[in-house]
Amino acid sequence: xxxxxxxxxxxxKDEIKISIDDRAFHFGxxxxxVIRVYEGELYLAEAHMKRLYQSAEKVGIRIEVNPDTxxxxxxxxxxxxxxxxxxxxxxxxxxxxxxxxPFPTPAVAAEIVGFTKGAKRPFxxxxxxxxxxxxxxxxxLHCDIKSISLLGNVLAKQKAVEAGCFESIQxxxxxxxxxxxxxxxxxxxxxxxxxPADHLILNGITRQxxxxxGRNHGIDIQEVxxxxxxxxxADEVFVAGTTVEIMPVIQVDDKKYGDNPGPITQTxxxxxxxxxxxxxGVRN
Length: 284
Ligand SMILES: Cc1ncc(COP(=O)(O)O)c(C=O)c1O
Description:
Elements: E1 3-6, E2 9-12, H1 23-27, E3 30-38, E4 41-42, H2 45-58, H3 67-80, E5 86-93, E6 111-118, H4 123-128, E7 130-136, H5 151-162, E8 167-172, E9 175-179, E10 183-188, E11 191-194, H6 205-216, E12 220-222, H7 228-232, E13 236-241, E14 245-252, E15 255-256, H8 263-280
Parallel strand pairs: 7-8, 7-14, 11-12
Antiparallel strand pairs: 1-2, 1-6, 3-4, 3-5, 5-6, 8-9, 10-11, 10-13, 13-14, 14-15
Helix pairs in contact: 6-8
Bound molecules: pyridoxal-5'-phosphate.
Pyridoxal-5'-phosphate is lined by residues 34, 153, 178, 181-183, 202, 204-207, 241-242.
């Protein structure tokens, strides 16, 4: 039987009884994280936990359990679920209360669920690259919060699927923000550009790590927004996220990029793979 985390306890998945009055159902009122597990080791887990608490704080959800204990529970979940390669999904909703827009008063306990999913690393796509399509970013203005209200992102991903693409790269008034579930990057004249970590994007944990690794390696990485025109005139394009790692984009709509995956994308991929190997003891 598949295991899951439910408010601090590891239980069989079918033992979880989530109320229809959970605000996650009514309003998408909650926050979440997805943490990668490689060879049984959690990758960048502390950074994910930090962002989870930050997201919760930004929307006024109080997580009673402390981050260390919470992380221990996720490690226990990973063990009991026998997860070797895959992801841990964890969600914290504002809790259970009859449907009414304002926060419940008095406050109710946050409802926490977590589950695991086996997943292989997308080696073939990481080597060959993928296609993307450019679409308008129609999401709200709090994209820094990892909210479970993901309708905008779902619609954006569906547009990619319908266009035969791996990802949608979104823009607001011609300024590229991010993918539907990834951060977007271009390389021009050996400099990497990505949107600054403000309210218009989710500050990806993979984004943060690759910026750190790249800069330590001497690569010029600028957190400076770029336009859809810059995207089409770029030397290299890639997207990054927990499950896709660093994914080269070899075509955006009708535009094909020459030398692909490009050399800087490949260097960043190698640096990230080495980091995964170090942290999680994985062989790439
Ligand atoms: C909108 C959005 N941007 C960026 C990312 C990448 O973030 P991370 O690297 O933390 O997975 C995600 C991940 O789900 C996302 O949903």
